[in-house]
Design goal:
Number of strands: 4
CATH superfamily of the largest domain: Terminase, small subunit, N-terminal DNA-binding domain, HTH motif
Largest sheet: 2 strands, antiparallel
Structural class: alpha+beta
Radius of gyration: 30 Å
Strand order of the largest sheet: 1-2
CATH class of the largest domain: Mainly Alpha
Helix content: 40-55%
Distance between the termini: 66 Å
CATH architecture of the largest domain: Orthogonal Bundle
Shape: flat
Number of domains: 2
Order of helices and strands: HHHHEEHEEHH
Strand content: 15-25%
């Protein structure tokens, strides 16, 4: 058995840590790391008791948690932008119709993400005069608010956690008290 003198993990231990963090199955992690099937269960238990391995597992799980938290915060920011962006952040209504407030490359990226589509439709009147119509469709603010609400725990389903013994359930099903 090879040990690193300075507390550094062996290659097998490094693989064990990575595999263990995938599904938290020590036996399978030991087998995938190359330990014998006969000794894998014991090796897994020993490895999980080693401080250096515990630290490495904790670091991986902490990093995973931070990344997940960042992803949730990014989604929340995205949904909030959709909820609060108004069509007038993109276009203005005036006496000649509708005009864009800014060129497309000048629009705030957060506002641009709130746009579902922008169409400019050209049509011609009876005297061959060109008429431009602008159609702006924003992303669904109601759906964004629902998604945002879910991430902050605003919607909770009520679940009845009462417990009844098998005898009580049988009596209830029979209609007895």
């Amino acid at each position: 058995m090879s040990k690193k003198a300075n507390g550094e993990l062996t290659n097998k231990q490094k693989v064990f840590v990575i595999e263990y963090c995938r599904d938290f199955n020590g036996l399978q992690a030991a087998i995938k790391a190359g330990y014998s099937r006969k000794t894998a269960r014991v090796i897994a238990q020993e490895n999980l008791l080693k401080p250096a391995i515990q630290e490495k597992i904790a670091a991986i799980l902490q990093k995973r948690e931070e990344e997940a938290e960042l992803q949730v915060k990014d989604l929340q920011r995205y949904w909030k932008n959709i909820m609060f962006t108004k069509v007038t952040d993109v276009i203005s209504f005036n006496e000649s119709g509708v005009s864009f407030n800014k060129n497309s490359d000048e629009i705030d990226p957060d506002v641009a993400l709130s746009l579902e589509s922008v169409e400019v439709i050209e049509s011609f009147s009876g005297n061959d005069k060109s008429i431009l119509r602008t159609k702006v469709k924003m992303k669904d603010a109601l759906k964004a608010s629902e998604n945002y609400g879910r991430t902050i725990g605003a919607f909770r389903d009520k679940i009845d956690h009462t417990f009844e013994t098998p005898e009580e359930r049988l009596r209830r099903l029979k209609g007895e008290k």
